[in-house]
Amino acid sequence: MKHIMVLDDKQNYREKVRKIIESLEEKTYVFYIKSVSKAYEVAENNKIDLFLVDIVLQPGNPSDVSGLTFVENIRHMERYKYTPVILMSELEDPKLYAFRELRCFSYIHKPFENKELQNELQSALELPVAHTKTRMYFRNEGVLYFVNSDDIVYVEVIKRKLFIYTTSQRLTMSYETAKQFMQKMDDGRFVRCSRFVIVNMDYIERVDFTNRYVQMKGMERMLEIGTAIKERFKEELAMRGAILN
Question: What does the buried/exposed string (b/e) look like for 25-47 if buried means 16 or more CB atoms within 10 Å of the residue's CB?
Fold first, then answer.
C-alpha cells in the first residue's frame, strides 16, 4: 500500500486530485493537507511514497513559493532523498529549478486535464519504494529473532510479555513493554488503540468508535479501543489525515 501526500491550499484542487486518485487501481492512504506546518508534521510521522505539492500555498503573498521550500527541506531528510514529487502550479515556468535542484518526478501546470495527472500518478506509483523495511530484533531465552515492520499487523502486551501478530505468525517475546516497543519501532504507522495494544494503520480495515473496536485485515479477533485512550487514538488517526482508498 502506497502513502500519498497532497499539499494544496485550494479545496477545489484537493477534491479534483482525490477523484483522480480514487480512479487508480493502486491501494493508497492519502493525506490531504492545506498548510506547510501540517505537511511537515505528517512527513515526520509517516513514510510518504509520493508527494503532490502546489508551489504557491499562500496566494495572497506575491513572493510565496512555500511549496518549493517544503520540497527543498524534505530532500534533506534521508527517507525522502529520492521520493517522487509531482509539482503543481499556475506559474509559467518553475520547471528548470524544480527538476535540476529538487529532483522532481514531474511538473503539472494548472488547470490540468484529469488524464494528464492520472498518467503521472500511475507512473510515479509504479516506481520502486525508496525506503527500506524496518527490521526489529528481539532476544528471547538466548535466541535472537527479527521481524519486518511491514509484516506486523498488531502487537499486544500481557504481563510484560510481548505478542507480535504478523501476517503469517504469532511471536512471543519476554520483558518488553508497549512503551519500549514504540520507542524501538519509531514508525508513524504504529498507534495505540488501548493501553496494551498497538496497531499498524496499514492493516486497519474498520474502526467503530461507538462500540469501541478495531477490525484488522486478515484477523478474526476484534481489538478493543480503550476508554481512556479512545480520544487520543481518534486524534492520532485524524492527525495523519489518512483516507483509505
Answer: eeebbbbbbeebeebeebbeebb
pLDDT at 61: 81
**From the centroid of its chain, how far is CA 173?**
28
Dihedrals phi, psi of 103, to nearest 5 degrees? 50, 55
Higher-confidence position of 49 and 106: 49
81-119 pLDDT tens trace: 889 999 888 765 555 556 656 677 787 878 888 888 888
- Whether residue 220 contacts residue 210, with contact meaning beta carbons closer than 8 Å, is answered with no
End-to-end distance of the chain based on CA atoms, in angstroms?
10
Name 9's Cβ contacts closer than 8 Å, sequence gap at least 6.
34, 35, 54, 56, 57, 58, 59
Q: Pairing relation of β-strands 170-174 and 190-194?
A: unpaired
